[in-house]
Amino acid sequence: MTSIFDDIRSAFTKGNNALHQLIFINVVVFAVLIVLRTIMTLSGSGSTFGYLMTFLSLPSNLQLFAFRFWTLITYFFTHLEFFHILFNMLNLYWFGMLIREYLGDKRLVNLYILGGLAGGLIYLLSYNTIPYLQLRAEGSFMMGASGSVIAIMVAAATLLPNYTFNLILIGPIRIKYIALVMVLLSISGATGGNAGGNIAHLGGALLGFFYVRQLQGGSDMGRPLQAVLGFFRGLFQRRSPLKVAYKNPNRPYSASASSPVSSASNIPGNPSQLEIDQILDKISVSGYESLTKEEKQKLFKASQK
């Protein structure tokens, strides 16, 4: 048991591991819910567990959503079916590794959260405006990270369309075709039994595509999100204690304009946003293998920001 808690603490104290943290959160929430469902069902409280899930999954009913607005976030960390979370986490890992390598941890988190928000909003909008879905909206709830994951998949395919995965029984295939198949499956399933989930996939896919396009154009729509996350992160970070220094009146110290001040933008060799955008454009056209050693180093430096 100690080892498990050590693993959890390690996952959240080490820097630059956003992908592992996202997967870890999903798996822990899944495990807790499965254990809770088993205990409550065996004890005859299965209906109570179903009611509990309405506080985590996203309802299509706008009146209910108004009182459980947090479900717009909690739903994309919530799973109850093994194969649902398995395929979501596998895709998150494979495609998330690409986003993390080329764009960095912060933009991976941006895509995951913004993709989930876009999928949830499209779900709410469609179930309250489209007649076909309005007839099926009664008691409809949505959960799962599929909208977030497909946002990351489409973003990776937009950034690196010719990057190749070796799939079992299929062989090498470019990720742009994998993303295209996922989008087509979501479109075809928009009138099926999981219509809401598939519509949320499309919302996430659009977010992933436009996120990378705007990023290549020099704009990052995830900056407001990072500002919000930075605010909450600062609330929970330990502040270093104040230090009192003795000041010798005979040797006063005064700061001067010549005092060295470190800044990331002043570090020699630190790539500019324009250079990064040009490198990303080159990757989208010719692939990562076409980059020079210097360009790869610049991209790596940018991913550490």
From TrEMBL:
Top class in the EC scheme: hydrolase
UniProt keyword Transmembrane, yes or no: yes
Domain annotation Peptidase S54 rhomboid: ranges: 68-212
EC number: 3.4.21.105
Organism: Rufibacter glacialis
Superkingdom to which the source organism belongs: Bacteria
Gene Ontology CC terms: membrane
Keywords: Hydrolase, Membrane, Protease, Transmembrane, Transmembrane helix
Identification of the protein by name: Rhomboid family intramembrane serine protease
Bias (Low complexity): 254-265
